[in-house]
Write a structure and sequence with these properties.
heterotrimer, A alpha/beta, B alpha/beta, C alpha/beta, A: eight-stranded parallel β-sheet, 17 strands, C: alpha/beta, six-stranded mixed β-sheet, 38% helix
Chain lengths: 273, 481, 250
């Protein structure tokens, strides 16, 4: 955790209430436990924002991307925060989001693709143990034609934890040529853990490419055997496997070395599950 | 006219008198509305044992505490439950004297489906006694079944002749507390089918209500109970493949299936109730609760082709209680014009090594709304449970909706649950290709849709599948071009 | 080094190994041949400790240890390597990460210090040359998206990294084209010393053109029914197993 604070210390501070970015060259910003934060990227602007949630309180973020704006948004939860984020995207804007729940937080996202050719890409992970109850809600609204969205949320629940994913891809009547994908991949690690996933599609346009998928399962037992044959203990093999499962999402937090630091934190959390 | 119906009519007449009603009052004032009295009256008219009457009353009292469900993706106009006739004498349909009196559009549909004239007459409600030897069909059929010890009759008959079996199983899978419409059905069900396959018996033929002449006009609150005892097998076909016209607005049927150890039941439906006209006026509200309970090594397979009804609300489900039991759900739901369908399944994995498979193919056209709604639940003890779901939507036109609402609730770490869904449309390239090979656009669409639904249609018994294909084609008319 | 005595094993109640006796000494190369379904892969799996199989009788001594009482990983750390017939894909776990853990676990078992990152990278580079494994592959997830040949090369690469006392190669030649076969076999030969031993399981002679065995065993119906020298493999290639099987079935 110190490492993460250290990295964020080198970033510009966003807020407390407002962040407005005009610069076309991406600059990293950080916000720690924002209660209300409004982020605006003007046309063509670019930024990287990292939001850290370490309290039980509520957090409300609104993000507005003007035409062609590009935002790389990383969120990390280490407490049971109740957070709501809305992202409004104008034409050709691009928002790449990464969210990592290392705690029983409740994170909801509403993404409005309101301008043609807007693009949203979201990668999410929750790692839950003990009696934690983590929730990720994701509503992606394709309001106009030619937008793209791609979301993958991976969940790991051990102990007596419950992980919940509720997703909805909504495609409005004239949002033709929508390309939307949503995936929910989950692993249960213990007898008393529980996963509930609801990936939903609501489609009112016919010329669309929409797909979703959801899986709940356990880690591949043959892979564990293979790793043990190479001398890893069962616990090591399992941890490696889970890290492999969530690693691609966790590591994608732009602005290195943040990705590795978050992964290290995630690995620490895995030890405790 | 079947003898059973006559009998029922006769006994009813006596009872009416006993309860101090005259026929005239019965049809005019008991006709509409629902109260505990009406419930008791229905039971009395059917000459039911007192435990059945009390069950109905209990269901009615429970129903009073419930509200109609609103969670489905449906716009349901408010239904005035006091404006419905809950009991009509078993003979519900007006008899016509000749084929000339049949609605010409219905006749055209029959012709398109290639249904033989005799059957057309039967289905349209023309008196067929002189034309078709329906009684002998029925008799041969019943003899074959009786030899094997199979019971196949109306619920009313079953209550009379096999009260212990009915008492044991009725409401055991769908209790009246289940939901609003199940409670209503339990209180007022008019009639329906009862089927019992004894231990180790393979039913030698597909059972269909079509053969049970007195099944016609059982009305809006049908109740079906199928019991396959240990090691038994039956394939059951529901409804007729021809488009029955029915003036009833609300259908709230309940189907319960008990699949005992090592038994297998296949239940196929082709639902083609009146969907309303092109402007969305009229049509049936089809609110059905269907559920089966599988014991150890049992297998239950639901196959449905839903093309009719203005509103469909229906989730044939499997409770996989026994170890190694298997549940399957194969569905094609086609909506056109202003139809709405919210249909899917629930697979409840309780036993170990239980498996389920869901294949759902939605087709929406016109201004219709078509939703898949599914639940896959894996209980704590369901070691090694497996589920695979594939839910596809096909959109025809840009004014319809296609939705997918799956829920996966997994509480066992050895379980593997997979769900996939895709959405597609009929591409212009496909149509052009077919047109170029000389197919009309309509034929091309029919061909593509049938290809899309093939996996499900293939699960239907052969004859049913052929008619289902024709029904789909019929329903597709005017969707393109 | 390895002493297998009267080994019986079952899977799902079915007896697959029905009394195996096998002695392997340091410096030796053994080939185990036999028709499909004779129990070759089961023998490899049982020695590695795959829990799918239940040992019902017999004993296995490996470097003075009671092998059967050890966990899979301790058998590996002691120096038993199994080259898998179907190497498993492990999504998201990089080869480097995986091998670093494995190498250091082996070192820890022997009471050695873990390798530093630099030392480890040097070792990776050195050993990948043994089987001409591209450094691109070592940067990827374990076996993920590898071709059949790449997976088998990767097995031998890992064998080189872990430097086992006894390597059991289960059908390492299956699915390989002639170039890959040569590379894999040459790699195995390079790694062979007077200190270690190799057991090659195969049902083709062609691998034995490159890896010359000291002893050839024929496994049939869960037993070793014949043991000979390297000429036996050639004879089997020419005449098939029938002459042995017929003799045995009589």
């Amino acid at each position: 955790m110190e490492r993460i604070y250290e990295i964020l210390g080198t970033f510009r501070k966003a807020g407390p209430e407002q962040l407005r970015v005009d610069a076309p060259v991406p600059t990293p910003y950080a916000a720690v436990d924002p209660e209300h934060l409004h982020v605006t990227l003007t046309a063509g602007a670019a930024a990287h924002l990292v939001v850290l949630h370490t309290t039980e309180g509520t957090s409300e973020l609104t993000v507005e991307l003007a035409e062609g704006a590009q935002l790389e948004l990383t969120e990390l939860f280490t407490a049971g925060t109740f957070s709501e984020m809305t992202v409004h995207q104008a034409a050709r804007s691009c928002c790449r989001m990464t969210t990592v729940l290392l705690s029983g937080a409740n994170a909801s996202y509403r993404i409005d693709l309101a301008g043609a050719a807007a693009e949203n890409n979201l990668g999410g992970v929750f790692l839950l143990g003990g009696q934690e109850h983590g929730v990720v809600k994701l509503h992606t609204n394709h309001l106009v034609a030619d937008c793209r969205s791609d979301s993958t949320v991976k969940g790991v629940a051990g102990g007596e934890a419950t992980g919940e994913f509720s997703g909805l891809v909504y495609v409005a009547q004239d949002a033709q040529r929508t390309d939307a994908r949503q995936q929910s991949r989950n692993v249960l690690l213990s007898e008393r853990a529980r996963i509930e996933t609801m990936p939903q599609l609501e489609i009112y346009a016919d010329d669309v490419k929409c797909s979703h998928g959801a899986t709940v399962g356990q880690m591949d037992a043959d892979a564990i055997l293979y790793m043990r044959q190479r001398g890893l203990s069962e616990a090591q093999a399992r941890r490696l496997q889970i890290e492999g499962f969530v690693g691609d999402v966790v590591r994608r937090c732009g602005a290195e070395p943040l990705g590795e630091a978050v992964l290290a934190l995630a690995a620490e959390k895995l030890e405790r599950i | 006219m079947a003898e059973n119906e006559k009998e029922i009519l006769e006994t009813l007449g006596e009872r009416e008198y006993k309860y101090g009603f005259t026929s005239a009052i019965e049809t005019e004032t008991i006709g509409k509305g629902l109260s505990e009295e009406v419930v008791r009256l229905i039971s009395a008219k059917k000459g039911e044992p007192s435990w059945m009457t009390e069950r109905r009353v209990a269901a009615y009292r429970h129903w009073l505490t419930l509200e109609p469900p609103t969670w489905a993706h449906l716009h349901i106009p408010e239904i005035n439950f006091q404006d419905i006739i809950y009991y009509a004498a078993p003979k519900g349909r007006k008899k016509l004297d000749s084929m000339d009196e049949v609605d010409p559009e219905l006749k055209r549909t029959f012709d398109k489906l290639g249904i033989p004239l005799e059957e057309q007459m039967a289905l349209a409600g023309v008196a067929v006694d002189a034309v078709m030897d329906s009684v002998s069909v029925k008799t041969t059929f019943k003899e074959t079944l009786a030899e094997k010890g199979i019971i196949f009759c109306s619920i009313s008959e079953a209550l009379r002749d096999h009260p212990d079996l009915v008492r044991k199983y009725l409401g055991s899978v769908v209790p009246y507390t289940d939901n609003f419409y199940a409670a209503l059905n339990a209180a007022v069900f008019s009639d329906g089918s009862f089927c019992y396959i004894p231990k180790g018996v393979r039913c030698p033929m597909e059972l269909s209500t079509y053969f049970r002449i007195n099944a016609a006009g059982t009305g809006q609150f049908e109740r079906t109970l199928i019991v396959a005892d240990e090691g038994a097998y039956v394939s059951y076909l529901e409804g007729c493949t021809a488009p029955q016209r029915d003036e009833n607005q609300l259908h709230a049927a309940v189907v319960e299936i008990v699949v005992e150890r090592d038994a297998e039941v296949k239940y196929s439906t082709v639902q083609n109730w009146y969907p309303g006209d092109k402007e969305g006026r009229g049509g049936i509200y089809n609110f059905v609760t269907k559920r089966g309970l599988c014991r150890e090594n049992a297998r239950l397979s639901w196959t449905q082709v839903e093309t009719g009804s203005a509103i469909t609300w229906k989730y044939p489900s499997c409770v996989l209680a026994g170890d190694n039991s298997v549940g399957e759900f194969y569905s094609v739901a086609m909506t056109n014009n202003f139809q709405q369908a919210d249909t899917g399944t629930k697979m409840i994995h309780v036993g170990r090594n239980t498996r389920s498979r869901i294949v759902s193919k939605g087709i929406s056209a016109g201004r219709s709304e078509n939703s898949y709604r599914g639940l896959v639940r894996v209980a704590k003890g369901a070691e090694n449970a497996r589920n695979y779901s594939q839910c596809d939507s096909l959109l025809i036109g840009d004014r319809c909706g296609a939705h997918t609402f799956p829920v996966i609730d997994c509480r066992n770490r050895t379980a593997v649950v997979e769900h996939e869904a895709t959405t597609s449309k009929i591409s212009d390239d496909q149509l052009f290709y077919c047109n170029q090979r000389g197919l009309s656009t309509e034929d091309a669409v029919g061909l593509i849709v049938n290809g899309y639904a093939r996996e499900v249609l293939a699960k239907l018994p052969m004859e049913f599948a052929v008619e289902a294909q024709k029904l789909l084609a019929l329903q597709l008319e005017g969707t393109v071009g | 080094m390895l002493s297998v005595k009267n080994l019986h094993a079952t899977v799902e109640g079915k007896e697959i190994l029905r009394g195996i006796n096998l002695e392997v000494k340091a410096g030796e190369v053994h080939a185990i041949m036999g028709p499909n379904g004779s129990g070759k892969s089961t023998l490899a799996s049982v020695l590695a400790g795959n829990e799918k199989f239940t040992v019902t009788e017999g004993s296995v001594e490996f470097l003075g240890h009671d092998l059967l009482s050890m966990s899979i990983e301790d058998r590996a750390r002691l120096g038993l390597f199994l080259g898998f017939q179907y190497p498993v894909e492990i999504p998201g776990v990089t080869m480097a990460n995986f091998m670093k853990l494995a190498v250091n676990e082996h070192r820890k078992y022997r009471g050695e210090e873990p390798l530093s990152a630099a030392e480890f990278l040097r070792l990776m580079k050195e050993k990948s040359a043994v089987v001409e494994l591209s450094s691109k592959l070592t940067a990827r997830a374990v076996n993920e998206g590898f071709s059949g040949g790449e997976k088998k090369k990767n097995e031998i690469f890992q064998m080189a990294m872990l430097d086992p006392k006894l390597a059991i190669l289960d059908e390492t030649d299956s699915g390989l084209d002639i170039d890959a076969l040569r590379i894999v076999a040459t790699g195995v030969t390079k790694l062979h010393t007077s200190e270690n031993a190799t057991v090659v399981i195969t049902h083709y002679q062609r691998l034995l053109d490159y890896i010359v065995p000291d002893v050839v065993h024929v496994l049939y119906k869960g037993r070793i029914i014949y043991t000979g020298d390297k000429t036996l493999a050639l004879k089997l290639e020419k005449e098939g197993y029938d002459w042995l099987i017929n003799e045995y079935d009589k």
